[in-house]
Design brief:
heterodimer; A: 630 residues; alpha/beta; Rossmann fold; 4 domains; seven-stranded mixed beta sheet; five-stranded mixed beta sheet; B: 373 residues; three-stranded antiparallel beta sheet
């Protein structure tokens, strides 16, 4: 694997997340932990693969706060430690993060957070940079894949110097982008773990004292950042118009200026160390500018700091950004940036001509290209057990007759809010919110269903279930156990029997945890559709907190294990659009493995995607779908 | 989805006969609940509408279909029939296990053994205590006998008939409540009203059902009754329920308990309030209690087919038959007419307009109602 290559100076093509992992390896990381979450998952994925080879430790932790605590312990014992997570993960860690800063750390500790502007694979587009301000910790923002590696390595050194964790904040386009990376030397030093100090936060005066000490450390960091190579200036040295940017915005800004051929009078101030801000360096460029445009994702984080700096110094510079309500906002602070967005911003604030490269020909070709993309709605995979589970739940609720609310949660089954999940979810928030919300709906005076996947259960649902049991909430908690953290790429979790490094691990069984809490548990295979409907219906008639485990392996894993089974439609039996079916399989059950053959007026199996799971065969009212036994 | 079947469900008129279950993926059933899971998006009225006994019930049209004639004044109260008699199974074993005289069990078992039918759609006591109905397709005498005794709950048994037809059975018997017999006759009469191709090209409902035995029925209980019952006895210990005049009896292995009938009646399914048919008037043969004589049945023979099968079973020594005393017949007629009058009044209160009867029939029922009041 590329990230373990011991060839300093060689250039290799790496994904941003691989580059972050390589940075940690070059820094001599000894302990890595993470909970999977797009777009961060590959970091620990590749580190865990490299760990046995290079002799360090890597684990998938039960959730992000546990991952951070575990990494901090490694740091306390003098080792270099990294923990990685997606944006929402840092919110999970917030409580620990804002005490870890007070106790400080020992071995270099790097917290990598991958934000997801535009929420491409998340339920929100939270900008986690504010946590660096909340926790008074230094923050680095890589703008290229090379920087992703270099900054990670530097972050370990800075952390060790400050004795504080250091945050590296990536975004989807950096983490999942690819670029050439010049490799550095791998640090092969192996330290002995030793706990020789206390790491405590104190109370009252001592906590306040530590808080003051933290600010002193930030001053040291700011001083270091003044001369950092991660901050630099590009373009006309005396530019009157400045773009101030960080992260993915750097290349967008550079490309926009190139496309618009704006050279004279234009410059870009690219920042890599955005908290604390290197004030003298920024001020030195604000001084020659009359106007500045801030390009960043997603919140006006740098914008506010630069405006404050300009006000402090009494500089006469007009600063455009995305601060909601600001008279000088060129757009609202939502969504991703892009080359187009930068060009549009320049057009708005600087009246530059709309980019000439987008002529009529370009627009026409783009339109043609768009037509070539197949229209696909967001959907469960063929063979996915969740489709069957949610269908069973929906059916049982209809049979019950009461409008039973379903509290969704985070996992593939978040799609319960869409057509593919029969619009079943009444609520959908963060990891573990489903069971918590469900236990609070008592005034509805009817049962409430909460959903959670197996990995989500371990991550965030146990206190919620205990609350439901303790406070006697009328909750049917349905665990969709597909034996995987499927949505993020099949990372192992405490229920599957292996760890991150592929070694056998003890199995924590969902049913045993639930029984330990004292709630009744029933287990059912959702592919046995009739039994599944009956199970949900019967459990809806019960009271108190109870758990139903729908257990069926993720369709992708199952297909990898046993191969595809061939399924086909017996056309003579298929009712098609007639009374008695009307395209139930392709229209309502809506598995992508079944398509409607308009010409024949019959259903057809799309053999390319069908896994042969056979659920549609059980639901077909005509028995027209046959799955061949293998 | 056309609206009439939705109205039946939302209006509390659904009898849970099961005729609309297993004919499409949109209507599903559990216990005595029928629900529409999704809109089928079919524009015209479909099988569910034509099969359901509560969307429309044209009594004369169905009489013409079953008996080849409209109802005369004579037929209004007990339905078209050739004879009314008392009978019981000769086999003591069958009777011992039966609700009353075991006639329905004996007839069906005999019809299977002689090859008149290949199987029968019946209602077994299901898992556990035998109280809860579970539709089955019985292919042997043992399976038939396992379905003996009255179930006081509805079990959507015709869902099993729909499945059996799709599975390719071509010669079936059915034992059902009056509403189920109505639905069954609608299935036969209007089965070809909806053309949809596919598997339905191979199914001929009108020819595949060879014997229809109807059971007398006053009403059935909702599943909430189980909750009430469990306050008095352990439901799993119950072996038999019965309603002799004015009381509700529960029999266990070693106990007999009586519950006040008025309390039990609170759990009667509301859909039964508009039921106009006590004696399963569209069956080939109707079977019910002979009040006060626990091991005999009242039997009404209606069709030629019914006469033939019954007499053949009698000749084969399967049944023991005797005349029904005139006063018992009079009581039966009174009970049947009373049910019709009550139902007629309730239909008016609810503005339920599914039932179509002749002017003559309406007058008879109205006159009785006025006399009673």
């Amino acid at each position: 694997m590329l990230i373990t290559l011991d060839e300093p100076g060689r250039e290799v093509l790496l994904m941003g997340n691989e580059a972050i992992a390589r940075g940690a390896i070059e820094a001599g990381v000894a302990f890595c932990s993470a909970y999977p979450g797009t777009p961060s998952s590959e970091i620990l994925g590749v580190l865990a693969e490299a760990a046995p080879k290079l002799g360090f430790y890597a684990e998938w932790s039960t959730n992000e706060i546990v991952a951070m605590e575990a990494a901090a312990a490694a740091s306390f014992s003098g080792l270099r430690a990294l923990c990685a997570m997606k944006s929402q993960g840092l919110s999970v860690c917030a409580d620990f993060l804002t005490t870890l800063n007070l106790s400080g750390t020992k071995g270099g500790m790097v917290i990598v957070v991958c934000d997801d502007p535009a929420a491409l694979s998340s339920v929100n587009e939270i900008d986690t940079r504010s946590y660096a301000e909340i926790a008074d910790l230094p923050l680095l923002e890589p703008a290229t894949v090379q920087e992703a590696k270099d900054m990670t390595k530097f972050a370990f050194e800075l952390s060790e110097e400050l004795q504080e964790p250091c945050i590296v904040r990536s975004v989807t386009r950096i983490s999942h982008g690819r670029g050439n990376v010049r490799l550095g030397e791998i640090n092969k030093e192996r330290r002995a773990a030793q706990l020789s100090e206390r790491f405590i936060t104190g109370l009252a005066a001592s906590a306040v004292e530590r808080h003051a000490g933290l600010h002193e450390k930030l001053r040291v960091a700011a001083e270091k950042f003044e001369g950092s190579p991660f901050n630099f200036y590009y373009g006309d040295p005396d530019a009157a118009f400045l773009i101030i940017t960080s992260g993915a915005g750097w290349l967008y800004s550079k490309e926009a200026l190139q496309l618009l051929d704006l050279k004279e009078g234009f410059g870009i101030l690219k920042l890599g160390t955005t908290h604390p801000l290197p004030r003298r360096f920024v001020a030195s460029h604000l001084e020659h500018a009359a106007e500045a445009l801030v390009i960043e994702e997603t919140d006006p984080f740098i914008e506010r700091k630069v405006k404050a700096l300009a006000a402090d110094l009494g500089l006469d510079v007009r600063i455009y950004g995305r601060e909601p309500g600001s008279e000088r906002a060129f757009a609202d602070a939502v969504g991703e940036m892009s080359v187009d967005a930068v060009i549009e911003a320049l057009r708005r604030v600087k009246n530059v001509e709309k980019a000439s490269f987008r002529d009529a020909e370009y627009e026409r070709e783009a339109e043609e290209a768009l037509k070539m993309l197949p229209r696909r709605e967001i959907a469960f995979c063929p063979g996915c057990p969740h489709r069957a589970s949610l269908f069973a739940i929906k059916t049982a609720i209809k049979l019950d007759g009461r409008e039973v609310p379903v509290c969704g949660d985070i996992g593939c089954y978040t799609l319960g809010m869409f057509r593919t999940g029969f619009y079943i979810s009444s609520t959908s928030h963060c990891m573990g919110a489903g069971i918590g919300l469900a236990s609070g709906f008592r005034n509805l005076e009817k049962p409430v269903i909460a959903l959670a996947g197996d990995s989500t259960f371990f991550h965030a649902c146990i206190p919620g279930l205990i609350n439901a049991r303790y406070n006697n909430a009328n909750v049917l908690f349905i665990l969709l156990d597909n034996g995987a953290t499927a949505m993020t790429g099949f990372q192992p979790h405490p229920g599957v029997g292996t760890n991150a490094m592929g070694e056998p691990a003890p199995v924590v069984r969902l049913e045993e945890v639930c029984k330990g809490i004292g709630v009744p548990v029933r287990i059912c295979d959702p592919f046995d559709v009739d039994a599944a409907i009956k199970a949900v219906y019967e459990m809806l008639q019960q009271d108190g907190a109870r758990v139903l485990i729908f257990r069926h392996t993720c369709g992708i894993i199952e297909t990898r294990r046993r191969g595809r089974r061939k399924a086909y439609v017996v056309e003579e039996k298929c009712i098609g659009e007639g009374c008695g079916c009307n395209r139930f399989c392709s229209r309502v059950f809506n598995c992508p493995g079944i398509v409607w053959d308009k010409e024949k007026g019959k259903a057809r199996i799309d053999e390319v995607v069908c896994t042969g799971c056979g659920v549609c065969a059980k639901l077909c009212p005509a028995g027209a779908i046959v799955v061949e036994e293998t | 989805m056309p609206n009439r079947i939705v109205e039946v469900l939302s209006g509390g008129l659904c009898t849970a006969c099961g005729a609309c279950v297993n004919i499409c993926p949109y209507i599903r059933n559990i216990e005595d609940r029928i629900a529409i899971i999704e809109d089928c998006n079919v524009e015209e009225e479909g099988r569910c509408y034509y099969y359901c006994p509560r969307t429309f019930l044209d009594v004369d049209e169905l009489n013409e279909f079953v008996f080849g004639r409209r109802r005369s004044e004579e037929d209004v109260i007990l339905g078209c029939h050739t004879s009314v008699l008392a009978a019981r199974a000769k086999s003591e074993a069958i009777r011992k296990n039966a609700q009353y005289g075991g006639v329905a069990s004996a007839l069906i078992a005999h019809a299977i053994e002689t090859g008149e039918i290949e199987a029968a759609v019946l209602t077994s006591g299901g898992e556990g205590n035998g109280l809860l109905p579970m539709p089955i397709v019985a292919k042997s005498k043992d399976e038939v006998l396992s379905c003996a005794k009255t179930k006081y709950f509805m079990g959507a048994s015709l869902s099993a008939l729909n499945k059996a037809l799709k599975d390719g059975f071509e010669s079936l018997g059915v034992v059902g409540t009056p509403c189920q017999v109505q639905a069954l006759r609608k299935m036969q009469a209007y089965g070809d009203a909806v053309e949809s191709g596919g598997i339905y090209e191979e199914i001929d409902v009108s020819k595949s059902i060879k014997l229809v035995i109807g059971l007398f029925c006053m009403w059935s209980l909702s599943y909430d009754f189980l909750w009430y019952l469990s306050k008095h006895v352990e439901p799993s210990a119950v072996r038999k329920l019965d309603i002799p005049v004015g009381s509700f009896l529960i029999f266990g292995e070693r106990f007999k308990k009586e519950l006040p009938l008025e309390e039990v009646k609170r759990y009667v399914r509301r859909a039964c309030d508009v039921c106009y048919d006590m004696t399963a008037e569209l069956a080939d043969i109707s079977v019910g209690a002979l009040e006060g004589v626990p091991d005999w049945n009242t039997v009404i023979l209606r069709t030629e087919r019914g006469e033939h099968i019954f007499r053949e079973a009698e000749a084969a020594g399967v049944l023991e038959v005797k005349e029904l005393e005139a006063e018992r017949l009079e009581h039966l007629r009174w009970a049947s007419l009373r049910k019709k009058a009550k139902a007629w009044r309730r239909m008016r209160e609810l503005k339920a307009e599914f039932l179509k009867i002749s002017e003559l029939e309406r007058k008879i029922v109205e006159r009785f109602r006025l006399e009673e009041e």
